[in-house]
Design goal:
The chain is an alpha+beta fold. The chain contains 14 helices and 18 strands. Helices cover about 40% and strands about 20% of the residues. The protein has a 7-stranded antiparallel sheet with strand order 10-11-12-16-15-14-13, sandwiched between helices. A 3-stranded mixed sheet has the order 3-5-4. A 3-stranded antiparallel sheet has the order 6-17-18. The longest helix has about 35 residues. It starts with 5 loop residues before the first helix and ends with a strand.
Length: about 475
């Protein structure tokens, strides 16, 4: 082993001293122990406020004042029982079909209408909000950020000490392992804290197990669908790899909150929660457009486009993306404005200076071959533009090898105005309430919905009866129409 030289030792000592001064010893508001953090509470709050603006650019707030108020009231009750009740907590319901909830440092907590669709009572909502409050009170985001900064400094120290980049890379990998190792423990701690806050707010902490079970069922169903559809699954971060009925640690930390329970506390009426969910949008937002099988409908922009069968369609905030099942070809659809009285040919030649093999297409559009870097490589790719009510659609088609050119052109020229009979297809689906009658089954109820494949499974998930439950006579249940 080669001994360290003295200049290297002095540099390491200086860096360690700087790190210690920067970190200080912050007291964890939950445990009372000292934590390694590189951020004051004031800075934490400012960071949360800054990132809150970015969240609102990425997501829209769901326009439902009564439901927004309800989420905030439940969240504020829990936050007042937390270890950091001096913070100004903010709870926001997002207009997103994603099954998700998350927290930013400083008390900013978000929940989507997508995850609320799978809840069936107030206790389940409280369980998710309590979990996210737990992340804030234990300063998980701040501790994670501090660990990442420290990992980078460790790598720098290792480089100075050894002069070997491979040593630095190994140190960074070690830092990554330590950081990723926090995941399970942080989630478990957030569940423990959430259960405590539920108990202190007169909810039953055992409901935490129920909501995790519902989300785990939804996750398993989503994983199955994602595999069949060849896409990445969209699952809530707080669900563990095992089911709660098999997760002893999860059961232990939640049941530890029983000591905070009020023996006189009463359960909330689940029908009050369900009535608030009546008419809430389900799935894609009408403002962002609706995907049905291989077609995309947009009511406000008054158009429909047909993609190839079996291609996966992703409706992103500023563009449409379609990907072939094998991932070897893709299309991106954007909109743009024509300048003055320019034609689609002039527009395309202005946007792509190297355009080749230009020619007209049906509907007053124009197409050509552009060259350059693209999502699937570097080289030629097809671009097509078609006019529509004062603006143009621009479709770019990419492939790893031979271009399916005609397919790209056919997709672009399929763009047209909605027919009268298609306006209902461009409308968002909504949650509707139904009082089950004797003999009702999810197989029968599925015929009243437009959920397509897996309609029965989705209805069972929405009503907490997955995988094989059936509605009871007189039960208030959710269907999608």
């Amino acid at each position: 082993m080669k001994p360290l030289n003295r200049p290297g030792l002095f540099k390491i000592a200086a860096l360690l001293a700087m790190l210690a001064v920067a970190a200080g010893c912050a007291t964890n508001p939950v445990s009372g122990r000292s934590d390694f953090v590189l951020m004051s509470e004031q800075r934490e709050i400012a960071l949360g406020a800054q990132n809150h603006q970015q969240i609102l650019k990425q997501y829209k707030v769901y326009e439902h004042p009564q439901l927004q108020q309800y989420v905030n009231e439940v969240g504020q009750k829990l936050a007042q029982q937390s270890h950091r009740n001096h913070l100004e907590f903010r709870f926001t319901l997002l207009d997103s079909p994603e099954v998700n909830a998350f927290a930013l440092p400083g008390g900013y907590i978000y929940i989507t209408r997508g995850i609320m669709a799978y809840m069936n009572n107030e206790e389940q909502l409280a369980g998710v909000l309590g979990h996210e409050i737990g992340h804030v009170t234990a300063r998980h985001g701040v501790r994670q950020q501090s660990a990442q900064v420290a990992a980078g400094i460790i790598g720098l120290i290792a480089t100075i000490a050894s002069g070997d980049k491979q040593v630095a890379e190994a140190s960074n990998q070690l830092g990554d392992v330590l950081i990723s190792g926090y995941g399970r423990n942080h989630e478990l701690e957030a569940d423990r804290l959430g259960a405590e806050y539920l108990a202190r707010t007169d909810y039953d902490p055992e409901k935490m197990l129920g909501v995790v079970g519902i989300l785990k069922n939804q996750e398993e169903f989503e994983l199955q669908r994602a595999r069949e559809e060849g896409r990445e699954p969209r699952v809530y971060h707080g669900v563990f790899s095992t089911h709660p009925r098999n997760d002893r640690r999860l059961q232990e930390v939640i049941r530890a909150a029983d000591k905070f329970k009020n023996p006189d506390a009463r359960a909330t009426d689940p029908e009050n929660f369900l009535r608030l969910m009546n008419e809430v949008a389900f799935g894609e937002s009408e403002e962002q457009g609706i995907i049905r099988e291989n077609k995309f409908y947009h009511k406000a922009m008054d158009f429909v486009v047909a993609f190839p069968q079996d291609w996966r369609i992703e409706n992103q905030p500023n563009q449409l993306v379609a990907i072939r099942a094998d991932g070897a070809a893709a299309m991106i659809v954007n909109t743009a404005q024509l300048e003055g009285g320019e034609s689609t040919a002039q527009f395309l030649n202005r946007k792509f200076s190297n355009l080749q093999k230009g020619q007209s297409v049906d509907g007053g559009g124009y197409t050509g071959i552009a060259t350059g870097k693209h999502p699937l490589g570097d080289g030629p790719y097809r671009v097509v533009t078609v006019p529509h009510q004062g603006y143009v659609f621009v479709v770019a088609g990419f492939a790893k090898s031979q271009r399916p050119d005609q397919l790209f052109v056919d997709t672009a020229t399929s763009i047209r105005k909605l027919k009268n009979s298609e306006h209902t297809l461009a409308q968002a689906q909504k949650i509707r309430l139904l009082r089950a009658k004797s003999g009702d089954t999810f197989a029968l109820l599925a015929k009243q919905t437009d959920l397509g494949r897996f309609a029965e499974e989705r209805l069972r998930l929405l009503n907490g009866l997955y995988p094989d439950g059936e509605p009871a006579n007189g039960q208030l249940i959710k269907i999608i129409q």
